[in-house]
Design a protein that fits this description.
Structural class: alpha+beta
């Protein structure tokens, strides 16, 4: 039997049933149709089927699931769902309501919520306000009012008309990569200067890794990665689009200057930022780190630090900074010094990622306080709003503009926030600018403040952990000279019952403290004091700042039940900057070799040098080179200036 029936061909979705005998998938059926208007179905019995009188075959084609869209995947075309009342279509666009955007999950499309009056859309973006305010970019202060609407309605102030409520504008603005690169180019040296005993590693300008860095710092490390891309290339101080590396619409740059490598990525959409590669430490030395949350200009930042140190090779110190709180982030570092691995995840709601790399010579560890000082200096480059230096939640630029605050030098910083060394209510810069104060050494301080002596004090943070393999260092940049004894007070919680702590001043051993006399950890912190003579301290200052290193003995364990730390404070009477007491700032004196003040460098001055020969007390008029000792170098300086003083 060969019964042929011509059937009108129609596109099928998703499958065809030849009733009672055969299922044909839609792809096969549609392919058979091709571009034809008809389809021929052949039904051929096998040879074993005999002919019977009146025998016939009925061919029925049934489409399971009709043609057309089926957004809710119920097997019924959307148009049929709507026509049959199975689905609603409140806006009449042919799409069932359950398939439309419904940001508030109330069962109605956003468009219908808005047109029906159930939701407001004050900024006309097609999204109900109750959903817009969930985005901190649209409701920066979290008060439940879309920022643009609050400003337009007068419930939120925007004194500088930049579209950001003033209370948010005192915080971080949108970071422009080009502006940040320009600021970094101008300020990189100041940031690098905060690294004690800085190592100016090589490479880092081009490529995607640092091969060695000098002194076996790396074995191919500092490789940048995200969950979107690996081995992200360095840009050589050029801002580049980074859709494939940091997310659609993102931009980034890397910049390498002496002792500082910086990567900045803005408008990012990533979950994870990673540093990888190999280190020259090769398993020796120590790896540690710390996480902190800092507030700068009323904005929170998470700081994540990894350090590899004490291996002899120059230390490797990662500083990763992201806006927002520390909560929600995961920071993972390995326990070995073989690799450069450092991973931060949980970044999906963070808009920027900043990474700084610095190094110290001879494997020195970058202390917590130094790392945070570097962070502060970097954050100062970010495009904060005009600022709110006095913390009254009113933008400085607005207060200056309306005349409620003065800005004598026009630098955008109100005078009340500038330095005022003599506390007379007039900013130092204003006194210098209007000529009411001299500044002979151009250090931004009136000379009468440079000449003033008084008590100097400084204190480190609680530096930890503290134990064998984890020494701590506190650095003082350019403290004034001491006029009397210097008191160093140490406070520590560690396993001090088992060992002692050695103290170095700029690499020179001062002695040991505690000496098995402290309590065992856990316990209350122990305190002890060390007294230095002014000459020893001043001699160290003249070498360029003071570095106090506290080195625990091997039997002090840094892993006590409670966090271990050591803290040091420095206190002494300073001389100001007028060692000879003549009322002239030392570095401004035209003729310092005129020790006796007769306006001529002669034998009278030479006799004073001989009379004061040797180690100086706190003040030595004959110590012309200020090295804490009167000797041949001072004689040579005196002979070099022999004769009448200039201008006499």
């Amino acid at each position: 039997m060969n019964n042929q029936s011509a059937l009108e061909a129609t596109r099928a979705s998703p499958r065809v049933v030849v009733q009672g005998s055969l299922l044909v998938d839609a792809t096969t059926f549609n392919t058979a149709i091709g571009g034809a208007d008809e389809i021929l179905v052949n039904v051929q019995p096998s040879s074993s089927v005999g002919s019977c009188g009146g025998s016939f075959v009925t061919v029925t084609l049934e489409y399971l699931g009709g043609a057309g869209d089926d957004c809710n995947l119920n097997g019924v075309p959307d148009s049929c769902d709507i026509a049959g009342g199975i689905s609603m279509d409140c806006n009449g666009n042919g799409t069932p309501d359950e398939c439309e955007n419904d940001c508030n999950d109330n069962g109605f499309p956003d468009e219908c919520d808005i047109t029906g009056g159930a939701s407001q859309d004050c900024n006309g973006n097609g999204i109900p306000d109750e959903c817009d305010v969930l985005d901190p970019r649209l409701d920066c202060n979290g008060n439940g009012i879309v920022d643009a609407c609050g400003i337009a309605g007068g419930t939120e102030n925007d004194c500088n008309s930049n579209g950001i409520p003033d209370e948010c504008d005192v915080g971080l603005g949108e970071v422009d990569a080009d502006m940040l690169l320009a600021d970094l180019t101008a300020g990189a040296d100041d940031i690098a200067a905060l690294v004690p005993n800085r190592f100016n590693f090589s490479d880092g300008v081009s490529g995607s890794s640092i091969n060695d860095g000098g002194g076996d710092m790396y074995d191919g490390g500092n490789i940048l990665n995200t969950d979107l891309a690996s081995s992200i290339p360095y840009t050589g101080s050029v801002v580049m689009d980074a859709d494939a590396s940091f997310g659609v619409g993102s931009r980034y740059f890397t910049s390498k200057t002496d002792g500082l490598f910086v990567m900045a990525a803005v408008d990012v959409d990533i979950d994870t930022f990673m540093i990888s590669g190999n280190l020259g430490a090769d398993g020796s030395g120590t790896v540690d780190g710390f996480d902190a949350e800092v507030t700068f200009n009323f904005v929170s930042f998470a700081v994540l630090v990894k350090r590899v140190h004490s291996a002899g090779d120059s230390s490797v110190n990662h500083i990763i900074i992201v806006p927002g709180p520390l909560a929600g982030l995961t920071h993972t570092i390995p326990s070995t010094t073989d690799g450069d691995d450092d991973t931060v995840s949980g970044l999906l709601d963070r808009n920027e990622v900043f990474y700084l790399l610095v190094s110290r010579t001879l494997g020195r560890r970058l202390e917590d306080a130094d790392a945070l000082a570097i962070v502060d200096a970097f954050l100062a480059l970010l495009p904060f709003g005009a600022g709110d230096c006095n913390g009254n939640m009113i933008l400085d630029e607005c207060e200056i503009g309306e005349g409620s605050l003065e800005d004598c030098d026009g630098n955008g910083l109100p005078d009340v926030c500038e330095d005022d060394c003599d506390a007379n209510g007039i900013a130092d810069v204003c006194e210098i600018a209007d000529g009411s104060a001299e500044d002979c050494n151009a250090n931004g301080r009136p000379d009468f403040c440079d000449l003033t002596s008084g008590e100097f004090s400084a204190e480190s943070d609680e530096l930890g952990p503290f134990g064998a393999g984890a020494p701590q260092t506190y650095f003082l940049a350019d403290p004034p000279l001491a006029a009397d004894t210097v008191r160093l007070t140490f406070r520590s919680r560690a396993e001090l019952c088992a060992g002692f702590v050695s103290v170095d001043l700029n690499g020179n051993a001062l002695g040991d403290i505690f000496g098995n006399s402290g309590t065992c950890c856990p316990g209350e912190p122990d305190t002890t004091t060390m007294i230095l003579d002014a000459a020893t301290f001043n001699d160290s200052i003249l070498g360029g700042g003071i570095e106090i290193m506290m080195i625990p003995s091997p039997n002090i364990n840094e892993f006590c039940d409670d966090p271990t730390f050591i803290q040091v404070s420095v206190r002494y009477e300073s001389t100001g900057f007028d060692l000879d007491g003549d009322g002239i700032v030392d570095e401004c004196e035209v003729c310092p070799e005129d020790i006796n003040g007769n306006l001529t460098v002669d034998f009278g001055d030479l006799l004073l040098v001989i009379a004061q020969w040797g180690i100086c007390p706190p003040v030595c008029l004959a110590d012309l080179d200020r090295d804490g000792n009167v000797g041949f170098s001072d004689v040579l300086q005196l002979f070099g200036a022999w004769g009448p003083c200039p201008g006499s």
